[in-house]
Amino acid sequence: MIxxxxxxxxxxxxxxxxxxxxxxxxxxxNPTAPTKEKRFAYSLYLDMLVLLxxxxxxxxxxxxxTPLASTRFISRLLLDDTVRSxxxxxxxxxFQLQGAVAPVAERVKESGLYKKYLKDSGNEIGSGxxxxxxxxxxxxxxxSPEVTALVxxxxxxxxxxxxxxxxxxxxxFVNFLASQDDISEVERALSAALDKSRELYMRLLCLPVELTxxxxxxxDENRHKFLKTEQDINxxxxxxxxxxxxxxxxxxxxxxxxxxxxxxxxxxxxxxxxGLLKAIKxxxxxxxxxxxxxxxxxxxxxxxxxxxxxxxxxxxxxLEALEDxxxxxxxxxxxxxxxxxxxxxxxxxxxxxxxxxxKFKDDEDARFGFELMRFLYRDKETYRRYIDEALSAGSTxxxxxxxxxxxxxxxxxxxxxxxxxxxxxxxxxxxxxEIAKAxxxxxxxxxxxxxxxxxxARLQKEGTLHKK
Length: 468
What we know:
The chain is mainly α. About 70% of the residues lie in helices and about 0% in strands. The chain contains 23 helices and no strands. It has helices at about 5-20, 35-60, 70-75, 80-90, 100-110, 110-120, 130-140, 145-150, 160-180, 185-225, 230-235, 245-250, 250-260, 265-270, 270-280, 285-290, 295-310, 315-325, 330-350, 365-390, 405-420, 425-440, 445-460. The longest helix is centred in the middle third of the chain and has 41 residues, at about 185-225.
């Protein structure tokens, strides 16, 4: 019932809500009114960050495989403009701590910290990273004789300045931990969003039942009026006795959901329900149906398909009632209404027991959204770097003016493209372009199409992406 189109939308909505308020990771700032000691400490602090990046690139599990280089801390450092400027400068100028890279990398590679990280990271995406770099720095890097020897040769060196640098590094690690994302909280939010989509589907299925129950009560009240007409005494029960509604009413899954959730449109919004029934009875769809001498199961199904498409889902009071219950429900209507119509068709085809669709098609779909979100959280700094690099490579787009939703859409698209080999590339690209068109700015579809296409082409050329 919840297909991958809707799952992608729910992942985007959930990620947008969480990433928008995410605490940003920032480096220590240049001290104000700096003394010689503070200038030394800050300069060494920046070089120490570069040293960590170079060590990460030097520690190989096997040739070409550098697991520390893809950790989130290193990925976040590489997004910082100050660090990137330093790396660019040291590409053409000598790096004073270069002599420490190889011996420190060797100690890291042989350390229990590194080996434990490799073991932990093999069990779950992103696990084992929280305190890794803080521990590596304090236990190995800062105490390495090669590092202390090179640092002691720097201009304006003092032991107090070295300790100040260590304090700055440790504040940076604390800042990084504070900006770490609680993936379990995000997963709970995604699970709740998917449950709400399921609830909307069930609510749409309940609507015909409650509307016909309401009409049945009205007809019964008319029979007991003091001044009755012939129509009051012998009403046409075609609408009330509709076979599609009877099939929904007898479905055990729908009945169980209604009882468990205590769902009742009439109890929640009787004014809206009476107005919606009035709109139905005033429609040509209803009146054409009621004029039929006899209605078969196909007529019954056609009635509710047409009412759902052309009356209920266009009714402003009903749409307002949905929005009051969930701000996302009106966005879900197009997708979920197709499944409601499929349920009607199953009853029409004499499959009342299977009328209520399963929440997910299979276990793979049930896992898809959560796996997609974990992949994005693990590598979102890398994906953001791809975006920034694509924007810097001659793009006419100003990255500071990009809609944040566009960034979330592209990052999620990259997470899917790079981590779900069974999903065709064109399917992923086209789906996220459509999401951008629907949920972001008027230019977002064009922007996502152009930028995502450029990143994909680059990754294919580099051999990072093998999909065609």
